[in-house]
Specification:
Elements: E1 14-23, E2 27-28, H1 31-36, H2 38-44, E3 53-59, E4 68-72, E5 76-81, H3 84-101, E6 106-114, E7 120-124, H4 135-147, E8 152-156, H5 178-190, E9 194-198, E10 218-219, H6 228-231, H7 236-252, E11 258-260, E12 279-283, H8 290-302, E13 307-312, H9 323-339, E14 344-348, H10 363-375, H11 383-389, H12 394-403, H13 414-419, H14 433-449, H15 458-486, H16 490-519, H17 529-545, H18 549-562
Parallel strand pairs: 2-3, 3-5, 7-8, 7-14, 8-9, 11-12, 12-13, 13-14
Antiparallel strand pairs: 1-6, 4-5, 4-6, 9-10
Helix pairs in contact: 4-5, 9-10, 14-15, 15-16, 16-17
Length: 577
Amino acid sequence: MKNEFAFLFPNPKKVQVRNDFFDIRDLCFPLEIYKKYDFLFDFFKVRNKNRGLEIIFQEHQGLGDEEYMLESGQKQILALANSIRGQFYSLATLLQILSFYGDSGRMPVFSIRDAPEIAIRGFALAAAGGAIPVAAELQRLLLKLALLRFNHFAMPAAYVAGLEKSTAVHSQTGTLSRVEMGLVASRARKMGVEFFLLPEGDAPAPGKGSDRAGAEFSQANLKFISSEASKKKMQPDAWFEDFLQRCKLGKARGGKTLVWADRFADHPEWIRKIPRDVLVFQRSPNTGNYENFKSKAMPFKKHHIPQVLSQTIWSRDRFIPAIRSSMAGISAAFRAAKADKLAGVVLIGCENGGNGCLPEGSALLQFESGCLLWSGRPPVPGAFSRWALGRDESDLFRVYSFLAQLDQQLPHTHGQYLFEDPVFAPFSRPGDPREIEAHYRKAALYLKKRKIARNELTDFLNFTRQLCEFIAAKVEFSSCLGSLLEEQCGPEQIQRQAAWLGQGAEKLKNLYLDLWRKRFQPEGLPDFIGGFTFLQERFQYLRQLSSRPAAREKLLAELKNHSPFNFPDGRSGIRSF
């Protein structure tokens, strides 16, 4: 019999399905379960009628902390778990099944037993420019991550207003209030997610020093160990004594301490004194440097210090992260954690604050990485839209798979082609602009042809389509600029096209800001928003220049001395002028 439950995410370890069916038109969940997880029932659009098929939740001491079992029969479904986390996972899997078979009114008899591959599966949120998510977005993101079995979530403590005060008044500076944070933390506990706040100094950039490496995560009871002492310039031994004191304080408050392994590179004698309840964060090894990573991890492993690998989701110069390369890094981190029996893997949302990667753009990356970290296996494509939208939408996976390769076979990213100076075009002009233009026109046409019912990702896909159209038009204009400056009718064309592109830059900026503000509070905006203003100024400059012959001659001379041009008709190089 085929795998009737291939639509599930993540893929359970053991599924047995019998060639027998039972009625699911009426469901009877325990009232306390229905009230506790009402948000989950709403997401899957499953209703409790307090009659019919009985759903029973029981504690089972023989199961692991996150392990669960589902056993179905003709008159009842039994959900077994040994923790709140296991209970949530069993219910999430069961509601997926009931939602899938809901329209038919019946489903096959089945049994499922599931458990994770690695213990800690985390996500650390960091947004561009310190932008703070609105409370509703934070709730949405937490639910989506919890459904993928992420069990740790971190965000900067600076996102929370009045952290040291007892007041619950909402801050006017764009932070989340303590009341909002309390609701988020309560929801996280119901889903088995350990929610941490990350004080300033979250992680040094790759290849940089470790001056910020003494930060800690803290539990979301809004008590945390200040990282200020670790930021002061103190002698190494004094820092370590301070670190041990803060570990004791954190444990007394019920907190958990994190420290970056970089801190101990020059002082390996400290490692044996690290408390066993501290989590040491190691940078994930790249695929070609595993032995070097292993030598760094071994001293901590020798003293039984729990280690977690941190893997960055790169999004530099992109609205959509580099999904394929990021997944390769996550896969390498997963394999290393398994091979060396480390505690787990935590994904870092945006290294160095990122630069404005839209949350919707990383949906496929979150989905694939969450499924891998839980089950150790890639997800079934059809399950993606059920996680993202709560329903089947086969084209959605195809579209996101296409977006995952948006910059493939191009020397630079879509962000670089977008914000490059349209006059000198340092990224698109040195190669063959026709290839870049054709690449993005093809992408825009592909997105335009896909017929997907309107959903929460529609506006993002529309923005991406218009982004590709704009880049193609901008690259074409830049590549023709030299010949237009020489042609008799060129000034009129420059003025017309520059005006159109200037309006396009304004429209694209507004589309982006609409998307951003749905997810984040308006006080924090990515730094590159200024790039749109720069583009508008440059197109305005070209409009003004086109009416002045002397200015056109001067610009043409500058371009000849700056770099070669590539023309649409195949002529190239400075001699073409």
